Amino acid sequence: MKTPAITTRSLLVFFLGRQLAAGSSAPHIIPALEGAIQQAQPVEYIASGDFWSQFTHAIDVKEGDVGPVQAAAAEGNATIILEAYAVWCGFCQRLAPFFDGAAKHFNDVGGLVLAKVNCADPSNGDLCGDLGLTGYPSSYYGAPDEFGDIRSNPPAELNELRSMSSAEEMISFLSKRFSIDGPTTEPVSPDDDAPPNGINETDAPLFTIGVDAYLSDIEKSTSESLVQALVSTSLIAKDGAREAFYDWQTWLADSHPSEKCRKGSQDILDDLDNLWPVDNSPGIVRSNLMKKNQCLTDYTGVEYKGCAAGVNPSGYTCGLWQTFHSMSVSPTTLLTGAQMFQYLEQFITYFFTCTICQEHFLGLMDKANQSAVSTQDGFIIWLWEAHNEANARLREEEINDGTFNVDRPKGLFPSPELCPKCLDDLYFEEHGSVLSFLEVFYGQDLVSGAEVSVKVLRGEDDSSSSRPRFGRALATSILVVASLYAT
């Protein structure tokens, strides 16, 4: 029996109830940064290069060169532990302080040389491809000479590190696994740039900030999606990978808001028999496809805009979510909601490489009512509900970990400040206003923020509506329900 899907309404009531139960007299419905559109700032969620540069026996791999790692390990007769991660991967960000702390520890104690390589950096592409990884983060271990010919003989994997919940636990595990003597439970503070911020349930806003969806963000993440699909031959060697790739390109060619991305996808589809012959080796297929630009243009040097606001470290995943939403509301699509759902599931299964993120996403899809997503409108609403459920989970994790990002809070979307009538929809258990909002926000209002569209969203030109806008009576009703729920 499937677990029932969680609705945005139930999440709102739950969080309001939690805040009331925690003693908040005025729940934080609106974020501190109401509708803010901010400039991109440096990301410090994963320890900076300055932190790793202080070590002699813990290496941040650059340009795909593992030579310095091998040299450091050979000098101390140590075993290498190499973590392959992507800076945009949320789960990697969560584990980063643990690996950083372990790196600091073994740099001092010896016996192990911890190294990391950012596979989202194109300069590390060959190394990450040779490792044959299928998801982030992936860890590998071995003697220095076992990292000499990675393409032909990849080192052994050590993915137990994914389950660690602290630097101390990781240090203890590695010390026992590789028989390293020395202290194993000393306190570790690897990254002073990102201390726990002390935000708790009563302080954290319920809704995220209203940042415009930029077409350039969607184009950049779509372009990166092809690079991520080709991060290693292991991904495209899976049974069914070619069919999943075809479905993803079909959805892009049909529904993407960017003409460049639609054209790029159609070009790939038209030449797919040459690019990905059924009987060719994964290495040749990867080489063929790496010569293509998904959206015709090289977006490597393009910076994220809206997806970088609020010091957001996950520009790629933010842009990818916006890509899904914008394609779901395509006014010219020839696809049904059921087809969109299927193509999305194929993409996540085969080509979304954040391991735990993938697991959670597929879990959301498994709970979906197939009849409810059979139409385009049904799929639009399901995707919105799923995104809010994902954000709610991340909100709880960040609060518990002390890493809640107050500049880009994880929360429900849209806020009443962006769409007052959407909150009415939650109260009346309807979706008409939410559907209209999503169609405009991810469709005709994409990037431009046209004044007339904002008026529609705010209900300023819809005086004929008999339903109340967000106000004290409605807020009171929801708070009463929330207080009963909390008890």
What do you see in this structure?
48% of the residues lie in helices and 5% in strands. It has 20 helices and 5 strands. It has helices at 8-21, 49-53, 67-75, 90-109, 125-131, 167-177, 215-229, 233-236, 241-255, 259-270, 272-275, 282-289, 315-328, 337-351, 355-366, 376-401, 420-428, 432-444, 451-458, 472-486; strands at residues 58-60, 79-85, 112-118, 138-142, 156-157. A 5-stranded mixed sheet has the order 1-3-2-4-5, sandwiched between helices. Helix 1 (8-21) packs across helix 20 and helix 9 crosses helix 14. Mean pLDDT is 81; it is low at 26-47, 190-195, 448-481 and 483-487.
Can you give keywords for this protein?
single chain, 487 residues, mainly alpha, 5-stranded mixed β-sheet, 20 helices, 5 strands, globular
What portion of the residues fall into strands of 2 or more residues? Answer: under 5%
Helix content: 40-55%
Oligomer: single chain
Broad structural category? mainly alpha
Low-confidence stretches: 26-47, 190-195, 448-481, 483-487
Major sheet attributes = 5 strands, mixed
N-to-C terminal Cα separation, in Å? 28 Å
Radius of gyration, rounded?
24 Å
Give the integer mean of the pLDDT values.
81
**Overall geometric form:** globular
Number of helices in the DSSP assignment: 20
Helix/strand order, N-terminal first? HHEHEHEHEEHHHHHHHHHHHHHHH
| Strand order in the sheet with the most strands | 1-3-2-4-5
